[in-house]
Automatic annotation (TrEMBL):
This is histidine kinase. One of its GO terms (molecular function) is phosphorelay sensor kinase activity. It comes from Sulfitobacter mediterraneus. The lineage of its organism: Bacteria, Pseudomonadati, Pseudomonadota, Alphaproteobacteria, Rhodobacterales. Its EC number is 2.7.13.3. Residues 215-242 form a coiled coil. It catalyses: ATP + protein L-histidine = ADP + protein N-phospho-L-histidine. It is an enzyme of class 2 (transferase). The keyword Kinase applies.
Length: 461
């Protein structure tokens, strides 16, 4: 109970209300003490009126008047004359003087607390102004023990009343908070627990219903998070199924390509010059397809091999990636521009870098062919002391906003209708495996440009 939010709320509410009551209690005690002494001054003044009416009072009557006023002596100053009106024997000497004229609240509180925690019975002189302007000053002497007992009795009654008010207030506040806040919070927790048991079930997503603004905002945020998580889990399940299917297809396709690879040996012996010229490219394409199938199968087993780094000619790599796209765009008015410094080499995995450049060039070609207009695809390369840089650009229409938002996310970053976005995702993953980076330099109505950056040292970009 104590560790629960409701239990702690109840305890804190009671404590805070008690603190507030204590803050009220202290000035109340001070006020009670002041009223007590003013009351004794007023009684003493009334008793002194009897002496003014009759200069000679019976000692027994004078003693009775002093006892009723609960004082020992009464001094009244009238017309600049200080006169002892009533008097009796005092049990002890005067210990202190209290002047109630123009006294501040802090002094009253301080003196009240001192008197409350000082049990000794003392005789004090109290000075004040007479009521109804019956003189200039009135003084009395009185004992402190009766006043202290009256203060304690008053304080106990205040404390009991404060405790009752505190408990009632805390209980009412607890019930209100339980209905307005704790119960809705428990409802949200229940929704979270039910959703956690079956996150794929969209029926478990919370529907915001709280009337408290802050709690409703929390429910809306939770609803968005649950919706996104459910969609992500469904997509993950679809990707797992797709991965299983791709692995099976890659397995069979690898066997088919392996058989085709055997037939290419016969093609290389052909006497036809055109066949002999194109045969190496066909062999290279089939070999890459076999490697791709093997990599896909390894990826399905979560055993994607790292790149095998070797020094290779930059221009030859780029030309191989562009040749296939030239053939695919022979019926379109597209041009290719390659700008690579002569003799430039880079350290990378030949097969993986071919896939990176092939995906980037293919995306650029498909973007230009979708417009049905003329266009150019450019591949440039340069290097500095830290890295090699390869830029693949086109004069196409640019990437749509959705593709930019999910640029390297599979099945979400497609730049054209029907596109899967796998090309960029694969390219980014392969470049990352080299310790490099693939980034979008620019995109817009004048075209798109991607940059591949590969580090020369051991550090990643």
């Amino acid at each position: 109970m104590i560790n629960s939010l409701s239990g702690r709320l109840l305890i804190l509410t009671t404590i805070f209300v008690m603190v507030a009551e204590v803050m009220i209690f202290v000035p109340s005690i001070a006020r009670f003490r002041e009223d007590y002494m003013l009351n004794r001054l007023e009684r003493a003044q009334i008793a002194s009126l009897a002496l003014l009416a009759d200069d000679m009072l019976d000692p027994a009557l004078e003693d009775e008047l002093l006892k009723n006023a609960e004082v020992f002596n009464v001094v009244l100053r009238r017309d600049e004359v200080r006169q002892l009106m009533l008097s009796s024997d005092m049990p002890q000497t005067i210990a202190a003087t209290v002047d109630l004229r123009d006294v501040t609240a802090m002094v009253l509180i301080r003196d009240a607390m001192r008197r409350l925690f000082r049990p000794q019975n003392e005789v004090i002189r109290v000075m004040g102004e007479p009521v109804r302007e019956a003189g200039l000053l009135i003084e009395i002497t009185m004992e402190t023990a009766p006043m202290r007992m009256a203060m304690i009795d008053y304080g106990l009654r205040i404390l009991v009343l404060s405790a009752v008010i505190s408990v009632i207030t805390a209980l009412l506040l607890f019930l209100a908070m339980r209905a307005l806040l704790l119960k809705p919070i428990k409802g949200v927790v229940g929704h979270m627990q039910r959703y956690a048991r079956a996150p794929e079930d969209a029926r478990g997503i919370i529907e915001p219903s709280a009337s408290v603004t802050e709690l409703r905002e929390a429910e809306v945020a939770l609803q968005m998070m649950q919706t996104d998580l459910t969609q992500a889990l469904k997509q993950k399940e679809r990707l797992a199924q797709l991965g299983s299917a791709v692995s099976k297809i890659s397995h069979d396709l690898r066997n088919i390509l392996a058989a085709a690879q055997l037939f290419t040996d016969r093609i290389e012996t052909s006497e036809d010059p055109t066949v002999r010229r194109l045969a190496p490219k066909l062999v290279g394409s089939i070999t890459r397809a076999v490697h791709l199938c093997e990599s896909t199968l390894a990826f399905g087993k979560a055993e994607e091999p790292g790149p095998t780094l070797t020094m290779m000619a930059m221009a030859e790599l780029i030309e191989d990636a562009i040749d296939a796209e030239r053939l695919a765009s022979r019926d379109q008015n597209l041009s290719f521009a390659v700008n690579v410094p002569a003799g430039m080499h880079l350290r990378a995995d030949p097969e993986q870098m071919y896939r990176v450049l092939s995906n980037l060039v293919r995306n650029a070609r498909q973007a230009l062919m979708a417009t049905g207009q003329e266009g150019e695809i450019g591949v440039t390369a340069h290097e500095d002391d830290a890295a090699w840089h390869i830029d693949v650009s086109d004069t196409g229409p640019g990437l749509p906003p959705k593709a930019q938002e999910h640029l390297f996310t599979p099945f979400q970053g497609g730049a054209r209708k029907g596109g899967s976005g796998l090309g960029l995702a694969i390219a980014a993953e392969l470049v990352k495996g080299h310790g490099g980076s693939l980034q979008l330099l620019r995109t817009g109505a004048d075209g798109t440009c991607f940059r591949v950056t590969l580090p020369k040292g051991d550090g990643a970009i």
